[in-house]
């Protein structure tokens, strides 16, 4: 008997969006999905148990997904063979080899599911599904992430149109909607993606309800008809008070402690400034200096010294509680959007480098620093990938 649907999640944000999708379904369709949590890039700790106890999912399964670096036999298949033809044949071998090597670690038979949803098909799971000719739905890795960096184009710069054509016919694999076995690619906002040429689009205004039309241009022929739009804000706005409370309890294990700290900050009468950390710069000493500068330059609001609240990124290894003991440091392991669901919470300012703060509504002012700020800390060509990809077209 075919099972209904399964989601492959690599981050807490992926799980959050999955919950939004499931809670927007009719009550009779809830609780039928399987949640597959990949441990490759995140430690989900006890989120799996809390997700299963929430009743949103039928089952939660751990996926010990292995990165390509785990397999030494792949190293030789990454070498440049000197010309595009030889490189493409070698790449085809790489794709198929990675798919086979990943197979022992996949804990489910994906062929048993009617719908497979994958948030980051650039990870080995994408190669696995394509290598086994299993069709799936792709979803953007982060909120509007293609607006800032189309990794498919950047990773395949040089002869891109040829590579995209080869991916479309299944000869090689490319993520983000280019794969032959990718049914569609779900994004939050099609209009925000800076594709060339006049745009037409296919939107999914409601979960499970498609509008007519398509998305594609003569300049982007290999994604034509694949991109669909589901606004995360629309899904979040439909949640009931009970749904919001359910998600808050599911993602924040110490919710009472968090609310207590934030109430003390508010009672002080000072401005509150939320800092969203990111795993920027490999040297943790440099990262500490970057965020020290960021706080010093943005921690005062309208002449009022702010109470600094740091929300560490789950993959950020800097110990903010140790390095910044004078500030309030939140648990890294919940999506920032959950802060919207805490009654009465309102920050005066949020400051980020690359994290898009658009989905945060519990703040009065949003500051996005971006590349100009990062130019002070590392060579521009390292983080200005969008510009390098555009120049390579």
Evaluate the radius of gyration: 22 Å
Mean pLDDT: 88
Fraction of residues in H or I helices: 25-40%
Q: Compute the number of helices.
A: 15
Low-confidence stretches: 196-201, 204-223, 388-393
Order of helices and strands: EHEHEHEHEHHHEEHHHEHEEHEEEHHH
Describe the structure.
This protein has a 7-stranded parallel beta sheet, with helices on both faces. Strands 8, 9, 10, 11, 12 and 13 form a 6-stranded mixed beta sheet that branches. With 393 residues, it is α/β, with parallel strands linked by helices. Strand 4, helix 4 (124-131) and strand 5 form a beta-alpha-beta unit. The protein is built from 15 helices and 13 strands. Helix 3 packs across helix 4 (124-131). It starts with a strand and ends with a helix.
């Amino acid at each position: 008997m075919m099972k209904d649907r399964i989601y492959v999640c690599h981050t807490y944000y992926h799980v959050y969006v999955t919950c939004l999708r499931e809670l927007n379904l009719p009550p009779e369709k809830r609780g039928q999905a399987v949640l597959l949590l990949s441990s490759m890039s995140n430690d989900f700790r006890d989120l799996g148990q809390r997700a299963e106890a929430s009743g949103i999912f039928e089952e939660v399964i751990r996926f010990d997904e292995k990165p390509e670096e785990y397999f030494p036999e792949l190293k030789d298949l990454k070498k440049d063979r000197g010309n595009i033809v030889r490189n493409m044949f070698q790449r085809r071998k790489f794709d198929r080899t990675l798919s086979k090597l990943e197979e022992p670690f996949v804990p489910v038979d994906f062929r048993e599911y009617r719908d497979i949803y994958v948030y980051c098909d650039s990870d080995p799971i994408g190669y696995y599904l394509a290598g086994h000719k299993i069709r799936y739905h792709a979803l953007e890795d982060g909120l509007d992430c293609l607006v800032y960096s189309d990794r498919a184009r950047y990773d395949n710069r040089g002869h891109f149109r040829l590579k995209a054509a080869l991916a479309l016919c299944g000869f090689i694999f490319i993520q983000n909607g280019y794969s032959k076995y990718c049914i569609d690619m779900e994004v939050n906002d099609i209009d925000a993606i800076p594709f060339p040429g006049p745009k037409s689009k296919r939107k999914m205004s409601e979960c499970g309800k498609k509008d007519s039309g398509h998305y594609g241009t003569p300049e982007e022929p290999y994604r034509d008809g694949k991109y669909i739009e589901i606004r995360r804000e629309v899904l979040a706005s439909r949640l009931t008070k009970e749904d919001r409370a359910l998600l808050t309890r599911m993602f924040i294990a110490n919710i009472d402690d968090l609310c207590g700290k934030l109430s003390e900050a508010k009672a002080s009468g000072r401005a509150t400034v939320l800092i969203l950390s990111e795993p920027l710069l490999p040297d943790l000493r440099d990262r500490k200096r970057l965020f020290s500068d960021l706080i010093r330059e943005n921690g005062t609001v309208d002449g009022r010294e702010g109470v600094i609240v740091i929300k560490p990124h789950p993959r950020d290894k800097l110990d903010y509680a140790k390095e910044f003991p004078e500030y309030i440091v939140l648990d890294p392991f919940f999506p920032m959007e959950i802060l919207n669901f805490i009654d009465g919470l309102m920050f005066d300012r949020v400051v980020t480098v690359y994290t898009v703060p658009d989905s945060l509504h519990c703040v009065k002012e949003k500051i996005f620093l971006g590349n100009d700020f990062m130019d002070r800390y590392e060579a521009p060509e390292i983080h200005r990938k969008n510009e390098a990809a555009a120049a390579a077209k």
